[in-house]
Amino acid sequence: MHPAFSVIFFTTASGAGYGLLALAGILAPLGLMPTDQRIGTIVLGIAIGLITAGLLSSTLHLGHPERAWRAFSQWRSSWLSREGVFAVVAYGPIAVFAFGWIFQARLDGAIAWAGLACTVLAIVTVYCTAMIYRSLKPVHQWCNALVVPNYLALALMTGALWLAALLSLAGSKNALAAVIALAATALAAWLKTRYWAFIDATQAASTPESATGLGGGGLGAGGKVRLFEAPSTGASYLMNEMGYRIARKHAARLRRIALVAGFALPLVLTLLGLLVPGAAGAASALAAALLAMAGVLVERWLFFAEAKHTVTLYYGATSA
User: Fold this and answer.
1) Domain 5-61+68-315: which topology?
2) Closest by Cα among 149, 160, 220 to 185
3) Which of 26, 108, 267, 273 has the most CB atoms within 10 Å of its CB?
């Protein structure tokens, strides 16, 4: 599939924002992180900024962004529509939570419940984003049980790394935030490597033989189906969007970059940020968050580039 930067940026930025919001929404009301107004302004400001920037960038992928509002009417059948609905609905409790924390210095009663609602809606929105891809049966690299856990784990990881970094930069280093970031990064790395192993080891679900019904019995039984004539003689939308190809050696190199920048270095730098006091520790935590974002951008690019749609079988592909 063609990797569109607008969608890659959206899933990376909004995922980090929702992960940060989810953690703040549950940890702050429980008193498990500093809850003064300055911290609330920094944490919620970054979370809302990442979420909003990601959502706005996603509209750039639409052919007619001005018609985006029509997608909300399809919530009964479309995960894309459900994602949009929950993303908009989430701004309600976000506003209440932010107003109570930042302007009233309160995290009890209705404000605490608004924080919990932020956590729930953040998780549900990321889940809907993941299900947009998980539900697409023609793409076997997406239609598997590891896609949703990967999306949720990456959002938690990047959100937790940002939380640990922001608290350190604000002079309120929090050991719990750093431990959550370490655990989330380890979990996300494990799930990502499992996903890559799965798509490498799992045989493509569709072949020209299975797509045409000519490989198992009747005409052409036991033989190979080959392309006689291409559907088109020039470039087409289908091939541009769904026939993107990446060489195996390039994919392997990019996977290593994603693993090092997105998981290994953030683990080391977060641990260093936890152990080293002062500005050096804060800088280490910030570097961990920034590197993780860069690594996830590469990982997101690969998520699209390595996916093969079954329509490519009719353009000469041997499997999809």
Assistant:
1) Formate dehydrogenase/DMSO reductase fold (1.20.1630)
2) 160
3) 273
